[in-house]
Write a structure and sequence with these properties.
The complex is a heterodimer of chains A (about 325) and B (about 290). By secondary structure, chain A is mainly alpha-helical. Chain A contains 13 helices and no strands. In chain B, strand 1 and strand 2 form a beta hairpin. Chain B has one domain (about 5-280): ABC transporter involved in vitamin B12 uptake, BtuC. Classes of the chains: A mainly alpha (about 325), B mainly alpha (about 290).
Chain lengths: ~325, ~290
């Protein structure tokens, strides 16, 4: 591969790492801060992608749309829509242990998949929504990729700084207190369900934003664009490997897992086609196995959650 | 629409589908009660069972032989998964095991897809005509499904109520610490739980494959209805899981009367949320995690 191709590939990979890092950050708010198990990441992603697509595209035959709104409004709408889906689910499930949330979010992702497939006036069915505007999309290919990477990087940086600030703020401390000892937190008068709901909605909103960035990058969104189980699972392994509860860990884990994932795809694409199809499933098996190994041997991830004060000296003493 | 039509096209298929869900939901509810986590790989374990039976059938075994053999094999696999992946997470927060089981679901499905491919398969070719009894159209395999559920539930209830190990399982479910103190070997109880859950799970996969077709995603689609059934009946209650399974199956088939057919799968989700909202203990007063 010559240099230009390699550069293009790196840009492409960088954009995807940025988008997945947003999902991992969102999951970090839910799981890392609040201990909420969201198994429907792909659902919130899809809601974000379709919402932004509907809001920003020009009118088209056979489906609602034609709002032709500016990009930023589309992204904002994506976050709001994902948060609005999360709200009732959280309201019902967060009173119980996280098991119920896991099942309910699997259900949400399935329902969203059904809606996307069977409501053509909303999503244009199997053909999907096309001609989604892309910022700097009329530039040269490489330049446009670079511009988009810069946009993704800026969005990611802003999200990271905001989440990191929340992590160190009293809100973040309270979330971790609720996660680690619900009873004690309740005894101290914390409104547990409300706080959990906040974390769940914030996380979902970030996932919606990730979906919007994906749709605008691809210029189109179709039901097949994203395999729900694979996407959800990839984000989970990214966060767990990187270190749940640590925002830098989430971003590092995203980069590591995405590089392994797409490198292995390049490797298996070299195989003859009858093996290449099977190799896809072998890769899925290995990514599942990787989660098992991380959970067993390095449950804190590459960058463990930073501990402060008493917790740290307690750990040093051990 | 007359009564007979309603019975033939909605109630009977609903009960058959419900029996299949019930077989899986019993396992989920037992795992909830004794191990205290939700096992997200249960649907894909059912897929694996269905395809193991397919291999046996293709090797020439009649389904009547293949079914018990598959149940035994899947039970062994379930024990193996527990020993290999879940056992060492037992002292960590339970939600870690839930996450691990999501990974196991992906791994089992990947194995099925590598070994058997992604095309739909059936146990036997050709169209089966339903028999008519007093106007009711029932296929043989539908009768088998219902009969198997009834037999399985009767045997399981007798086992739980009368036998020493059944009592041990109920004791573990009611109060694990007290059970351990009174000398119950929790490793054996856990193994027994996986044998029952794995065997019934395989049976639900086989019967789903028998009544529809075998696909690598068939079990994943059953996961939500099975959980809805377990929650609807009351977590930890075997008879609740059966009741819940039948209701969810009926609700899915009857939903076609009022909703577009695409949203059949949404019924289980609606039931799950509704129960969590109004009565999280379920119809028969189960546990709440």
């Amino acid at each position: 591969m010559e240099l230009a191709g390699l550069l293009n590939y790196a840009l492409f990979m960088g954009i995807f790492i940025g988008i997945y890092a947003l999902l991992a950050l969102g999951l970090n708010i839910q799981w890392g801060f609040a201990g909420l198990f969201n198994a429907g990441i792909a659902g919130f992603f899809a809601v974000g992608a379709y919402t932004s697509a509907i809001v920003t595209t020009a009118a088209a035959e056979g489906r609602i749309g034609g709002f032709d709104m500016p990009l930023l409004l589309g992204w904002l709408a994506a976050m709001v829509a994902a948060g609005l889906i999360a709200w009732p689910i959280g309201k019902i499930c967060l009173r119980f242990r996280s098991d119920y949330l896991a099942i309910a979010t699997i259900g949400v992702a399935e329902i969203i998949r059904l809606v996307v497939k069977s409501e053509p006036e909303l999503t244009n069915g199997a053909r999907g929504i096309t001609a989604i505007p892309r910022p700097f999309g009329d530039l040269d290919y490489a330049l446009s990729q670079m511009a988009y990477l810069a946009i993704v990087a800026v969005v990611l940086l802003v999200a990271y700084l905001m989440v990191e600030r929340q992590f160190n703020a009293p809100w973040g401390r309270m979330m971790r207190a609720i996660r680690d000892n619900e009873l004690a937190a309740r005894a101290m008068g914390k409104a547990i369900e409300r706080r959990r709901l906040e974390a769940f909605i914030f996380g979902a909103a970030l996932m919606g934003l990730g979906g919007a960035l994906f749709a605008h990058f691809n210029r189109s969104i179709t039901p097949e664009a994203i395999d729900p189980m694979v996407a959800t699972f990839l984000v989970w392994i990214m966060l767990i490997l990187g270190g749940s509860g640590n925002n830098r860990g989430a971003i590092l884990g995203t980069a590591v897992v995405w590089i392994i994932w797409s490198m292995s795809e390049i490797a298996t694409d070299q195989l003859p086609s009858e093996y290449a199809v099977k190799a896809k499933y072998i890769r899925l098996f290995l990514i599942g196995l990787m989660l098992q190994l991380v959970l067993r041997f390095r449950p804190d991830g590459l960058l463990p959650e930073p501990l402060r004060g008493a917790a740290r000296s307690d750990q040093d003493a051990r | 629409m007359d009564m007979l039509e309603l019975l033939n096209f909605y109630i009977i298929p609903g009960l058959v589908l419900g029996s299949i869900y019930a077989l899986g939901a019993i396992g989920i509810t037992l795992i909830y009660a004794i191990l205290r986590y939700s096992h997200l790989a249960h649907g894909d374990l059912a897929t694996l069972g269905a395809f193991i039976a397919l291999a046996l059938v293709q090797a020439g075994a009649p389904l009547l032989v293949a079914l018990p053999a598959t149940m035994a094999l899947t039970a062994l696999i379930a024990i193996g998964i527990d020993k290999g992946f879940y056992a060492h997470l037992r002292d960590r927060p339970k939600i870690i095991t839930v996450m691990s089981s999501l990974g196991i679901a992906l791994m089992i499905r990947a194995v099925v897809q590598v070994v058997w491919g992604v095309d739909a398969e059936t146990y036997s070719r050709g169209i089966v005509r339903p028999e008519v009894y007093w106007g009711l159209r029932i296929k043989d395999r539908e009768l088998w499904t219902l009969a198997f559920l009834i037999a399985a539930v009767v045997v399981l209830q007798l086992f739980l109520a009368r036998s020493k190990w059944g009592k041990a399982m109920r004791a573990m479910s009611d109060n694990p610490n007290l059970a351990l103190l009174s000398g119950i070997d929790n490793r054996k109880v856990i193994m027994l739980t996986w044998i029952i859950a794995g065997g019934l799970c395989a049976a639900s996969g086989v019967f789903l494959g028998l009544n529809t077709e075998l696909k690598s995603m068939m079990g994943w689609g059953m996961l939500l209805p099975m959980f809805a059934a377990a929650v609807l009946g009351g977590v930890g209650r075997v008879e609740g899981a059966v009741l819940g399974g039948l209701i969810v199956g009926l609700a899915e088939e009857l939903s076609v009367l009022v909703l577009p057919g695409e949203y059949k799968a949404a019924m289980a989700f609606a039931i799950l949320l509704f129960m969590l909202l109004v009565r999280p203990t379920g119809l028969l007063r189960g546990k709440v995690l």
